[in-house]
Amino acid sequence: MTATIESPRSGRVAPQYRRSGGSKGNFEMIAWLFMRLSGVVLVVLIFGHLFVNLMVGEGIHAIDFGFVAGKWADPFWQFWDLAMLWLAMLHGSNGVRTIINDYAEKTSTRRWLKTVLYAAAVVIILLGTLVIFTFNPCPVVNGVALPGGFCPA
Questions:
Q1: Is 17 in contact with 111 (CB distance < 8 Å)?
Q2: Which one of 28, 36, 102, 114 is most buried, by most CB atoms within 10 A?
Q3: 73: closest CA among 145, 125, 136, 126?
Q4: Residue among 37, 30, 26 at smallest CA distance from 83
Q5: Closest listed residue to residue 141, CA positions, set 151, 128, 126, 130
């Protein structure tokens, strides 16, 4: 007795939903290479971030508004966190794009899902970048400096 196992998706995709065999050029190879390289860089960035935040000084008990304010006062840490944000969002978006390409059968569904994905990634990258570079730990509202404590007089 022999069992025949059909190849995945064989016969499951209706003819009107089958993809064309058009070439995408080098984009998929570049995306694959980006995933590997950004993954290596992200490991370094994330472990550096965790080491500084959790091991140096008082550890997790020292992380508060003042800790972040002091860290982001240094341009080095601003760019470190910016690189981590950008690489993580681009790396994750590329991974989700691959999943959408693998599992969304209809071309219109793939197009809409990727549009939503790209829009969300752009919004998060822009807002995160804005927060990192415009963060002011000592805002002045109606002539009153807020929040006090660690802000210079």
A1: no
A2: 114
A3: 136
A4: 37
A5: 151
Mark residue 85 as left, alpha or beta (left: phi above 0; alpha: psi -120 to 50; beta: remaining).
alpha
Reading the block at residue 128, the tokens are 């995160």
101 in a structural domain:
yes
Tokens of 37: 């390289």
Whole-model pTM: value is: 0.76
Task: Note the pLDDT tens digit of each residue in 87-112.
Answer: 999 999 999 999 999 999 899 999 99
| Positions in the chain short of pLDDT 70 | 1, 7-24, 141, 144-153
DSSP bridge pairs for 144: 141
The DSSP H or E segment spanning 81 is helix 75-103
User: Could you tell me if residue 12 is inside a domain?
Assistant: no
Spatial neighbors of 19 by CB under 8 A, at least 6 apart, are 107
